[in-house]
Structures are given as structure tokens and as C-alpha cells.
Design a protein that fits this description.
alpha+beta, Lipocalin, Immunoglobulin-like, 3 domains, eight-stranded antiparallel barrel, four-stranded mixed sheet, 6 helices, 36% strand, elongated, disordered N terminus, signal, Lipocalin-like domain-containing protein
């Protein structure tokens, strides 16, 4: 993936120019010290500059002004070919065909021009490598800042890739802070931890470390390779091949952290529409789908019936169902009501307590 597709800042474009009529100096005196080896770091950097691969992170703040000559040598420093390249695609093709123990050479010095029109000279491969590394470091810093900024915007809800049928963590929510701490809300419980964004060999990663021990920590405490699809979506994958999609959610009505619900006090009372909480009750408290350990098949989704009651006993007996519009006096404080979550086919049910909290919004 081109870094420029992600980074919002505009970098100064560093442009390298080499005259196509300039010969490589003293070909008969060439040594390996003069050449760029296929296994060298500079070779890899050049490949990142000219390659346009949507599946890889490329360096985009440097460009070459074409045309110029690229000479290819074998391991005995004999010239195999000398080609004029006219664009990134041609240069990338040459680099892609270089075999192990082979070398390339380009003409030095190379004139470099910044976007503001100022020029300077790159005299050898060491200066070329230093220039590319400096550019790469700037791009990587911008990418880290971009991802960090995104991760702090709103909350991020867990979803599944298209090829994954089920995960217990679907609809879990990450709420991140700028001090590097995070809260993962899963099934109504908050798990505290930390998150760190960094790059490994040009790949963006997020390290998640939740405190304590248990199934949740074991599932999430990994280094996650991260691919940002847009400002609203990213995919994370750990070294065990487990992937999740994280979707940014900014409207509290679109995600569920807990079964605590607030409503503003108006004229001394708060009004709660109980059916508005059905989705969160199901996400947090309803029995989840089951996965057959032998076949891997996932049980069908259940269309749960949700009703609300003033007490656990009423919920168990399914009597005295509350009306949908539930009013609480401001002086009454938090009220607990009980949601009965019933399978309409089997009539099996579970009950979950929810907290209705009058809030002074002034």
C-alpha cells in the first residue's frame, strides 16, 4: 500500500535526476564497493521507491526524474546488461529481475531537486541511501501519527472479515486514550490495558496489552499487523493468523459498552425508551452462537424476544411487563430494571439487569 494513500500531510518531494547521456565512470575499475548489491539495504530501498504494489508499503516522498542508465553486473563483476529506464515501472522491472549475488550501478553524481526548487548533489550510493532513509523515517513518523490520531477518534468496534463466520468478540469496543491506555468493553465488562502504535520493517503494527490473565487477555494480547482501509476502518492480524476489522463509531447509539443507559432530566424527570436498548441487551447479555468443535459449524442466529420488568421475580415469571416509555423522577436516582431475553422457539430465557440513570445535562 502506498503510504501517501494513508498519510494526510504533504511531504516535500525529493527528486533525483540523472542525465541519460552520462556514462558510468571507469567501468573497468568497478568494484563491489561501487555497486549496489541485490541483498543490500539500498537495493531494497530503491525497490520500495519505484514499486507500486497495493499489498506493500512503498516509499513515496522520493521520485526519480527519468531517463537514466542502469547497468547490471554478475557476481564476477561482468556487465550483463545496460538499459535506459524511462519510468518507475521499467526501473521496478529491472530490479525485480536481479538475481542473488548480482549488482546494479547508476551514474553519480545525481542532481537532487526539492519541491521549492533548491538543488543539491548526491555523490555516491551512501548519500543516496541516507537521503532515502531520511525520507522514509519522515513518512513512517507521519504514518504512526496518522494511525495514532485515528485510534483516538471516537471508539472502535470489533467486526469480522468477510471470510470469518463467528467470533465471541464481535461488537466488543475499544475506547482509547491519548496517554496510551485503552479499555476493551466485552460483554459489559471493561478490560483495562495499553496500546502502542509502531512500524516493523515498514509495516504498521498495534501492540495491545490488557491487564490480568484470562481468555480475553489471551485473545487480545498480541502484536497486530495493521492495515488502514479508510479513516473509518482498519484490519488487524496477529501472528497466529487471527484477523479482526475495527470500525470507528462516533454515535453512542451505534455501539454498546455496558448496560448503563442515561437520559437527560427534563422538567424534573427522565424518559427512557426501553426498546432502544434491545440491541445492547442482546450483544452484551444474550447467549451467543455456538460452534461445533468437530465440524466447525456455527449455530443459527436467534431472533430473541426482549421484555422489561421492575424485578427479577417478575422477569422470571414474565408478568407485569413494563411499558416501553419508562419515566423516572430526577429525585429517584438510578433505577434497575430487568430484561428477559427469551428464545421464542424453545422458551428458554435469561435475565439481565440494566441501569437507567437520570442525568443532569445542563
Amino acid at each position: 500500500m502506498k503510504l501517501s494513500h494513508i498519510i494526510l500531510s504533504i511531504f516535500a518531494l525529493l527528486v533525483f535526476a540523472s542525465c541519460d547521456n552520462e556514462d558510468v565512470d571507469d567501468l573497468s575499475q568497478t568494484t563491489t564497493a561501487d555497486l549496489i548489491a541485490e541483498e543490500s539495504n539500498l537495493f531494497d530501498l530503491l525497490d520500495q521507491v519505484v514499486k507500486d504494489d497495493p499489498n506493500e508499503v512503498d516509499i513515496t516522498c522520493i521520485d526519480f526524474i527519468y531517463s537514466f542508465i542502469v547497468i547490471v553486473y554478475n557476481e564476477d563483476l561482468q556487465i550483463i546488461s545496460s538499459q535506459t529506464v524511462s519510468n518507475d515501472g521499467e526501473f521496478s522491472t529491472i530490479l525485480g529481475n536481479i538475481e542473488a549475488n548480482q549488482f546494479i550501478n547508476v551514474s553519480f553524481p545525481i542532481t537532487s531537486e526539492l519541491e521549492d526548487g533548491t538543488t543539491f548533489q548526491v555523490n555516491n550510493k551512501e548519500e543516496l541511501e541516507a537521503a532515502i532513509l531520511a525520507c522514509k523515517a519522515e513518512e513512517e513518523e507521519e504514518l504512526i501519527n496518522e494511525c495514532t490520531g485515528l485510534f483516538l477518534e471516537c471508539v472502535w468496534e470489533v467486526a469480522l472479515p468477510d471470510d470469518v463466520a463467528f467470533s465471541t468478540y464481535t461488537n466488543a469496543v475499544f475506547d482509547n486514550e491519548d496517554d496510551g491506555t485503552t479499555d476493551l468493553y466485552y460483554r459489559g465488562v471493561s478490560y483495562n490495558g495499553t496500546w502502542t502504535v509502531y512500524l516493523i520493517e515498514g509495516e504498521l503494527h498495534i501492540n495491545i496489552n490488557l491487564q490480568g490473565e484470562g481468555d480475553v487477555q489471551s485473545a487480545w494480547n498480541f502484536d497486530w499487523k495493521t492495515v488502514i482501509q479508510s479513516n473509518d476502518t482498519m484490519t488487524i492480524t496477529n501472528d497466529e493468523g487471527v484477523s479482526f476489522v475495527l470500525n470507528k463509531e462516533c454515535d453512542e447509539a451505534d455501539y454498546c459498552k455496558t448496560l448503563d443507559f442515561e437520559s437527560c432530566i427534563i422538567d424534573g424527570e427522565s424518559s427512557f425508551t426501553l426498546s432502544d436498548y434491545d440491541d445492547c441487551v442482546i450483544i452484551i447479555a444474550a447467549p451467543q452462537q455456538e460452534v461445533d468443535e468437530v465440524t466447525g459449524e456455527v449455530s443459527p442466529l436467534i431472533e430473541w424476544d426482549i421484555t422489561y420488568y421492575d424485578s427479577q421475580s417478575d422477569a422470571d415469571a414474565a408478568i407485569n411487563v413494563l411499558v416501553d416509555q419508562y419515566i423516572i423522577s430526577a429525585t429517584a436516582g438510578t433505577q434497575v430494571v430487568y430484561a428477559r431475553i427469551e428464545n421464542p422457539d424453545t422458551l428458554e430465557y435469561t435475565v439481565a439487569a440494566i441501569n437507567l440513570i437520570p442525568e443532569d445535562c445542563e
